[in-house]
Amino acid sequence: MLLAIEQGNTNTLFAVHDGETWIAQWRTATEASRTADEYAVWLTQLLAMRKIDLASLTGCIISSVVPQSIFNLRNLARRYLSVEPLVIGDNVQLGIPVRINKPSEAGADRLVNAIGAHLVYTGDLIVIDSGTATTFDIVAADGAFEGGAIAPGINLSLQALHEAAAMLPRIAIQRPDRVIGKDTVSNMQSGVFWGYVSLIEGMVARIKAEWGKPMTVVGTGGVASLFEGATESIDRFDPDLTIRGLLEIWRRNTHLTDT
């Protein structure tokens, strides 16, 4: 069985694939200082709840945008799974062209998403990943990563409002019924939520105009579901985009090893 680890700036996803389907998924807060031993204790308990033996995990693939965490995640695989993990960006064959000025600067998460999207959706794509940052990734019809745009995520914007303005409280994200708020909280919710909808719609329109060809827009990420039904600019919502990409990269690289 394969353990796939997808680490973002806010959350880290651990998912187990049995060769046919994903049988378990868990999320934990990303903490750069968490050790391999701490990960192992946490993971062993969750595996036991699903009646999965740690020894049955025979492969591991890691995608992380937190460089200081990779050492501990790699040690988790080496010490407790007795396997050498595949780490995105560490001599792993992705099998796609990266058509940007400095390919080494492309985030691991964005490349994995490009692969996961190209497996399912045809033609040219815009992949919108809503997390700590909101990324707009352009995937050409041949699967190439063509670049895109990065904006602050919706949670980051709420945090900035609260921390920078003394009179503005910390609030939860939710979709307000009205654009015009009648109190401080509803004003903030409207500005952040509908402001992000407008960001998505505006960026999608500008990208399509610049690209000059039809594009399918796919939404993914931790808070993507917030925007479902709020805008017609996103054609599909796909929460499994990243782990699908990780599984495909694993298959491509283990195939290369086996042949």
UniProtKB/TrEMBL annotation:
<dbReference type="GO" id="GO:0005737">
    <property type="term" value="C:cytoplasm"/>
</dbReference>
<feature type="binding site">
    <location>
        <position position="184"/>
    </location>
    <ligand>
        <name>substrate</name>
    </ligand>
</feature>
<keyword id="KW-0479">Metal-binding</keyword>
<keyword id="KW-0808">Transferase</keyword>
<keyword id="KW-0963">Cytoplasm</keyword>
<dbReference type="InterPro" id="IPR004619">
    <property type="entry name" value="Type_III_PanK"/>
</dbReference>
<feature type="active site" description="Proton acceptor">
    <location>
        <position position="109"/>
    </location>
</feature>
<comment type="similarity">
    <text>Belongs to the type III pantothenate kinase family.</text>
</comment>
<dbReference type="GO" id="GO:0046872">
    <property type="term" value="F:metal ion binding"/>
</dbReference>
<feature type="binding site">
    <location>
        <begin position="6"/>
        <end position="13"/>
    </location>
    <ligand>
        <name>ATP</name>
    </ligand>
</feature>
<keyword id="KW-0067">ATP-binding</keyword>
<keyword id="KW-0630">Potassium</keyword>
<keyword id="KW-0418">Kinase</keyword>
<dbReference type="Pfam" id="PF03309">
    <property type="entry name" value="Pan_kinase"/>
</dbReference>
<keyword id="KW-0173">Coenzyme A biosynthesis</keyword>
<comment type="pathway">
    <text>Cofactor biosynthesis; coenzyme A biosynthesis; CoA from (R)-pantothenate: step 1/5.</text>
</comment>
<dbReference type="GO" id="GO:0004594">
    <property type="term" value="F:pantothenate kinase activity"/>
</dbReference>
<comment type="subunit">
    <text>Homodimer.</text>
</comment>
<keyword id="KW-0547">Nucleotide-binding</keyword>
<dbReference type="GO" id="GO:0005524">
    <property type="term" value="F:ATP binding"/>
</dbReference>
<dbReference type="GO" id="GO:0015937">
    <property type="term" value="P:coenzyme A biosynthetic process"/>
</dbReference>
<comment type="function">
    <text>Catalyzes the phosphorylation of pantothenate (Pan), the first step in CoA biosynthesis.</text>
</comment>
<dbReference type="InterPro" id="IPR043129">
    <property type="entry name" value="ATPase_NBD"/>
</dbReference>
<feature type="binding site">
    <location>
        <begin position="107"/>
        <end position="110"/>
    </location>
    <ligand>
        <name>substrate</name>
    </ligand>
</feature>
<feature type="binding site">
    <location>
        <position position="132"/>
    </location>
    <ligand>
        <name>ATP</name>
    </ligand>
</feature>
<feature type="binding site">
    <location>
        <position position="129"/>
    </location>
    <ligand>
        <name>K(+)</name>
    </ligand>
</feature>
<protein>
    <recommendedName>
        <fullName>Type III pantothenate kinase</fullName>
        <ecNumber>2.7.1.33</ecNumber>
    </recommendedName>
</protein>
